[in-house]
Write a structure and sequence with these properties.
- The structure is a single chain.
- The protein is of the alpha/beta class.
- Helix content is 43%, strand content 21%.
- A five-stranded mixed sheet has the order 3-2-1-4-5, with helices on both faces.
- Helix 5 (149-157) packs across helix 7 (181-207).
- The longest helix is centred in the C-terminal third of the chain and has 27 residues, at 181-207.
């Protein structure tokens, strides 16, 4: 294990933060379908700064009997049965996401991944429901602990809506791309990395010794 991996594993108490965004056919994780999932895996340099390393995503076919709410589909502009979505079933989609997450957890000397999301209670509820439906035994994510960028953005920027928080952080925001899992996950990851890095800079500044002779 090298110094960078040790630094990452210690920074979040052995957890690897992985940004997840999920698009669905409604608000009920048991009855509504998971339609898109994206994961952004960060890396940490020798100075403790985070940046995006990998982005993984999948379009997901509705599970048999899933409820498809028209209002939700109109909002995220997803046609669940469009042939060019090249959607896969839930189990294949989760395995596509979980495999690189498990590899990153191991590579960084961490014990488990922790879900980072913007209002992540929604994402983790759908993730856990899909894991239960598919019978996947080894979920790399903590089952209930999360990092919430809505809360962090409210503290740092006074904004809790993702688009407004991203803009307050100086990030570009494309309203045409918004509400795709891959786009929202990447923007959330940029927001999270920026906040963690900004905090690191503040801590480093506070730790610097005062110059002698200054009033």
């Amino acid at each position: 294990m090298n110094a960078e991996k040790t630094l990452f594993s210690k920074r979040f108490r052995g957890y690897l933060p992985v940004v997840i965004d999920i698009e669905t056919s409604g608000f009920d994780p048991v009855r509504n379908a998971l339609l898109e999932i994206a994961a952004v895996i960060p890396e940490m340099d020798g100075n403790g700064r985070l940046s995006i390393l990998e982005i993984h995503s999948a379009h997901v076919a509705p599970f048999p009997g899933a409820r498809l709410d028209e209002a939700a589909l109109a909002f995220n502009k997803i046609d669940p049965f469009h042939p060019f979505r090249f959607a896969v079933d839930e189990k294949e989609a989760l395995q596509k996401i979980f495999h690189p997450v498990r590899a990153a957890v191991k590579r960084n000397g961490c014990t488990r991944a922790i879900l980072v999301g913007h209002n992540p209670a929604f994402d983790i509820s759908f993730l856990n429901a899909a894991v239960a439906r598919t019978g996947i035994k080894k979920n790399p994510f903590h089952p209930f602990s999360t990092f919430d960028t809505a809360t962090l953005s409210g503290l740092v920027y006074g904004q809790t809506v993702l688009a407004k928080a991203a803009q307050a952080a100086g990030l570009a925001w494309d309203h045409q791309e918004a509400h795709s899992a891959a786009y929202d996950a990447e923007q959330t990851a940029l927001l999270f990395c920026g906040i963690v890095n900004r905090w690191g800079e503040l801590v480093s500044a506070d730790a610097r010794p005062a110059r002698g002779g200054e009033a």
